[in-house]
Specification:
- Its EC number is 1.3.1.74.
- It contains no helices and 19 strands.
- 0% of the residues lie in helices and 27% in strands.
- It has a domain of 161 residues: Ribonuclease Inhibitor (Leucine-rich repeat, LRR (right-handed beta-alpha superhelix), Alpha-Beta Horseshoe).
Length: 248
């Protein structure tokens, strides 16, 4: 890489036939100019710079978008327009608000929104709707509320990382039915989850990697996913376990 500095020039959008724009690992600062006119652009990588401000208008032709490791902020709800998107990496920024539409994009395979300031995760019920999503990385945010039960309706999902957030309440019973197949990795550690874990989590024969440590759970330490222990009782005051939800 070249360690280019200064801001990304607005005239870059005049290259209408550009298919890929990769300016990662430089020292670019300032905002990202509107790129909506690059109607053939399928790959955009501006990761590892010093860019700030909100998301600009982006071409709907994008299939790969990486803006990781910048200082970008604001909300991301306009990304639902990128219907061809396959990979999305906005990790290590300051995006905030709700996570909703990007999970529903029909072709998106991997979503990494870790290390941001998001506070809410909304997952629709997919039912028979096709979705390509396999990897969902939302660790190190400020996500609150209950774990979204509708994650079990995302048919191809294999990797889920919701660790280092502020989720509370019980682990949904139906999560246990997805362990090992199709879910291969499940990280829920460093939250405020409470109550007993679903019995499937106690099965030592399950082929799954994950972590339930540093919650307020009743989970024996001889269970692999709990062997690092839970939060001290003083951190779990007020984490009352409600009645289990009805299974889907």
């Amino acid at each position: 890489y070249n360690k280019l500095t200064d801001s990304i020039p607005s005239w870059i959008s005049s290259f209408r036939s550009m298919a890929a724009l990769r300016l990662s690992n430089n020292g670019f600062s300032g905002g990202i100019p509107s790129l909506a006119g690059l109607w053939q652009l399928y790959a955009l990588d501006l990761s590892n710079n010093e860019l700030f401000g909100s998301l600009p208008q982006l071409p709907t032709s994008l299939r790969s978008l990486s803006l990781a490791h910048n200082v970008l902020s604001g909300q991301i709800h306009l990304l639902w327009r990128l219907r061809r998107l396959r990979t999305l990496d906005l990790s290590d920024n300051r995006f905030a608000g709700s996570i909703r539409g990007v999970i529903s994009l029909p072709d998106v395979n991997a979503v990494n929104l870790s290390s941001n300031w998001f506070i809410e995760l909304e997952v629709p019920k997919f039912g028979g709707r096709a979705t390509a999503l396999e990897v969902l990385e939302l660790q190190e945010n400020r996500l609150q509320g209950r774990l979204p039960v509708n994650l079990v309706t995302v048919q191809n999902l294999t990797v889920i990382n919701l660790s280092h957030n502020q989720f509370s309440g019980p682990i949904p019973r139906v999560f246990g039915l997805r362990l090992g197949s199709p879910w291969k990795r499940l990280y829920l550690n460093h939250n405020f989850l409470a109550g007993s874990v679903p019995p499937e989590f106690l099965n030592s024969k399950l082929k799954i990697k994950g972590n339930l440590a540093y919650n307020c759970l009743k989970c024996p330490r001889n269970v692999t996913m709990c062997n690092e222990g839970q939060r001290p009782a003083s951190e779990c005051i007020g984490q009352v376990t409600p009645k289990r939800e009805v299974s889907l």
